[in-house]
Design a protein that fits this description.
- This protein has 519 residues and is an alpha/beta fold.
- The chain has six domains: 4-52; 61-104; 120-175; 197-269, no CATH class; 275-319; 359-514, Ribonuclease H-like superfamily/Ribonuclease H (Nucleotidyltransferase, domain 5, 2-Layer Sandwich).
- Helices cover 51% and strands 7% of the residues.
- The chain is built from 21 helices and six strands.
- Strands 1, 2, 3, 4, 5 and 6 form a six-stranded mixed sheet that branches.
- Strand 5, helix 18 and strand 6 form a beta-alpha-beta unit.
- The radius of gyration is 47 Å and the shape is elongated.
- 21% of the residues are buried.
Length: 519
Amino acid sequence: MYSIGDRKKAIDLYVKNGYRATRTVRELGYPTRQTLLIWYQEYQKAGGENGLRPKQRHYNDEDKQRAVDHYLDDGRCFAHTIRVLGYPTKKHLRAWVNELAPQERIEKRRPVKDKPTTSFNQRTAAVVDLCFRSGSAQRVASQCGTTRPQLYQWKNQLLGRDRREVGMNSDNDPMDCDDSDVLTSRVDELRREIADLHSERHRLRLENDILEAMEKVRKKEIGIDPVLASNADKTLVIDALKTIYPLKELVGRMEMAKSSYFYQKTVMAAPDKYEHLRAQVRDVFAASGSTYGYRRVRAVLIRNGIVVSEKVIRQIMASENLVVPRKKTTKYKSYIGEISPAVSNIIERDFHAEAPNEKWLTDLSEFHIPAGKVYLSPVVDCFDGMAVAWSIGAHPNADLVNTMLDDAVATLGDGEHPVVHTDRGCHYRWPDWIKKMTDAGLTRSMSKKGCSPDNAACEGFFGRLKNEMFHGRSWVGVSIAEFIVHLDAYLHWYNHSRIKLSLNAMSPVEYRRSLGLIS
């Protein structure tokens, strides 16, 4: 089948040679004289290169059926049918037979002979017999179960093409014994090299399998040296691979005594002595809303009469994956400039109070949920961290903080006039806030501009609140009103139920009740 370029080249040369077809065919070597004349006629008739493109014949259903019937009735030979009918191509005829008579199709396949497989040692022994033979190479090949060409191919692979056979040369004279020694030495060297390669491959495969098993055992320490792992982890790795490799080889590679392996197996098979304690730790952690760390979990257990060390609690929480969610967010800022003169910082980062209602802290915090933003304005007592009062709203305006201040002032007794420490936000510098502070006899205290550590205790309150109640949860589909209910419920739980280790593992309300401050 000639391409369009071949046809174009032949026609151009035909015209150049003065329309002499014989000369053109002689120079190009193709096609026949008659075919060249047909190409030129098609070229002239089509008026250009379109005449060079092979014509596609379209066959109807009768043509297809005729070709298939001839194929089935006259020997089922594709070539014979095409030669008799003059159409189609073998590809088309095969497709028609598959379409019209798929069950009649005969596939001619050559029988596949199973080739015998030979090991390296067998090939080496055959080459040695060939080199030291006393008879013909064909006899050696027959004894080894192979062919003479295959036998010489093995010899060339092992010894090279320039090495002659030892034993009988072309003149049937014995060869020099030095060649025999060289050949024997070469064969021994090759055997040692093959053995070394097998040993190295086995070692690399063992190391790779150990690393993969170690990665599954210690997911957070991918790539760690297996030798530096604990005996418990080594035992898990050995158990995963001992069906593939000998135990002696595994403990040697892991640099672990065999007795240590069996000791770890005994320990792992023993029942878990902390099984009952695990359930209690999970219950305490779940009851806290996934907010208690190991210290407060231990404090709750001690209150329930269960004495256990912190180390055990940490191990149990780590194995049970009891992790308190943490996330850092930016704090809401309400500073818009100097509205009124700022007051001095009376607290001076001393957040300790000997009695309730001596030092109060307040600030604003923002909660961003899919439904919108919610703002919290609390008053925190430095005595025990209790939230004295709070207000929650969808807008950080003056009404939010003023309402909170009115509720906090309503809890004061006679003669109680605490210091109220704030940042320099605009809410705490409006005339209305200043008037309420003066009317209640409260003392104002302010942080330096942009200095959050000056109000660190209140910032810590917000951090604990968001880590325990807000972060790590999905608030999709929760409306602002529903979120306010969740936040208000948490603040009540914070005051009445959430224990603080600094208060002897009691909540603020329980601590004040133990001191007789409230009934």
